[in-house]
Amino acid sequence: MHFVVKFFPEITIKSNPVRKRMSNQLKDNLQRLLKSLDERIQVRKDWEKIDVIVPDELAHLSGRIEETLAHTPGIANFSRVQQFPLGTLQDIYEKTMSVWGDKLAGKTFCVRVKRTGDHDFKSLDVEQYVGGGLNQNTDAAGVKLKNPDITVKLEIRHDKLNVVEEQTPGLGGFPLGTQDPVLSLVSGGFDSTVASYLTMKRGIRTHFLFFNLGGRQHELGVKEVAFYLWNKYGASHRVRFITVPFDEVVAEILENVDDSYMGVILKRMMLRAGSAIAKELEVDALVTGEAIAQVSSQTLKNLSVIDSVTDTMVLRPLITSDKTDIIKLSREIGTEDFAANMPEYCGVISVKPTTRAKIEKVQKEEDRFDFSVLERAISSRVMQNIDEVMEDVRGEIPAVEIVSEPHGQVVIDIRHPDEEELDPLELPGTDVETIPFYRLSNAFKKLDKNRDYLLYCKRGVMSKLHASHLLDEGYRNVGVFRPEKPDTDQ
């Protein structure tokens, strides 16, 4: 099995040194990601493309390989191809016939050829020869050069022939790690998750910063969506997840700040804390999910006052986006269900929020704020590697029983539906139910209380967190199913 990966066009128009650096980074990223599937997968790069070569015995991994390629920044598209030594025009036709002959029945088609190298024929010669042969010797409905049902794509590169079986769009953007890192302020809602995705897609290593305003379930939910984003779109690079306890800051604002200025001042406190943590991480920019006029604190006037509190650059990828477009993109990238089911903590909601904050008034309100509370929150921040965030929250939850082999328990697959569909869990002799993690809390209370349940996810991280949460709520009939040789692909 062979995949041909094409670079995102913005990479190909860069200067030669930049193009070389970006393409090398993409190759390294793919090697790192595909190695986790199987070390025998080879990744080879030349000036125009990257080849992913998969031994025949790993054909069962094709779905996961395609999933990885589809979600790796820097790829314009990738094709699954059958590769042959280049022969005569008749040989090219025969090889194409072996791949496409049975698929053309009843369909109109055309042949398109891309050719690199010196040959004694032109691309048009191949298109006409192969197209004529397929038209005469298959049950195709005929050749149609404009808008055919099927386009048969061939790539001739020097002494190799690639017959393209299927071409899939890539994510676009730049390879992760080619740009300087940022620190994204995430709340788990639609906006901050989409903003984080956009920076990752642009090749920016994106760390996550969460301000815990007092809701424990909110913290767990944000960790889940941050882990999901990283695992799906940015797993080639390890990043940090930082939690800052902000409940005391909120209390201080509620007690000492004028109602209309609470939202603006809360954002200023977050930027102060974010800037301090960014400096510690040697990061030069913060990212937020704010968009013009989406809420009262996001008018241009208010954003200007908020930004004036810090010298750190603040990036807002969604600044001119419509909410409907943001939700649509969240659906496409798989974070809609996270956001829609995110536990919320709304501790600072002004009755009559200002839309035109004045810096003099803000400073006067902040004079009544005890900044030792903010300093204490920053110093109490918890910094974790992103692949560790789903572990039990600081030992506050009862121990979870981990079972490697079910004995009468019902196994509940809590993975995201996309992951479950790609690799269904099959356990002969064991009852298996599928309940996505974001529905588990409500669904579990409706299950048979006389039966025992084991939660399952790829790494056992998310399942352990949710089992811990259910134990914490008083359930004692839940544990975790973790096979002795777990698949490490999340």
Treating each run of at least 4 consecutive H or I residues as one helix, how many helices?
17
Q: What is the CA-based Rg, rounded?
A: 27 Å
Measure the end-to-end span: 24 Å
SS class:
alpha/beta
Percent helix: 25-40%
How would a textbook summarize the main sheet?
Answer: 8 strands, mixed
Shape: globular
Strand percentage lies at: 15-25%
* Total beta-strand segments: 19
Strand order in the largest sheet: 2-3-1-4-8-7-5-6
- Low-confidence blocks of residues: 392-396, 486-490
Average pLDDT reading: 90
How does this model look, in words?
The protein is an alpha/beta fold and 490 residues long. Helix content is 38%, strand content 22%. Strands 2-3-1-4-8-7-5-6 form an eight-stranded mixed β-sheet. Helix 15 (417-422) links the parallel strand 16 (410-413) and strand 17 (432-434). Helix 9 (262-281) crosses helix 14 (371-379). The longest helix is centred in the N-terminal third of the chain and has 20 residues, at 16-35. The chain is globular. Residues 392-396 and 486-490 have low confidence and may be disordered.
List the helices and strands and how they pair.
Blueprint: E1 2-7, H1 9-12, H2 16-35, E2 42-45, E3 49-53, H3 62-70, E4 75-85, H4 89-100, E5 108-116, H5 123-137, E6 142-143, E7 150-157, E8 160-172, E9 179-185, H6 190-201, E10 204-212, H7 216-233, E11 240-245, H8 247-256, H9 262-281, E12 285-287, H10 300-307, E13 313-315, H11 323-333, H12 336-340, H13 359-366, H14 371-379, E14 382-385, E15 402-403, E16 410-413, H15 417-422, E17 432-434, H16 437-444, E18 453-456, H17 461-472, E19 478-481
Parallel strand pairs: 5-6, 5-7, 9-10, 9-12, 10-11, 12-13, 15-19, 16-17, 16-18, 18-19
Antiparallel strand pairs: 1-3, 1-4, 2-3, 4-8, 7-8, 11-14
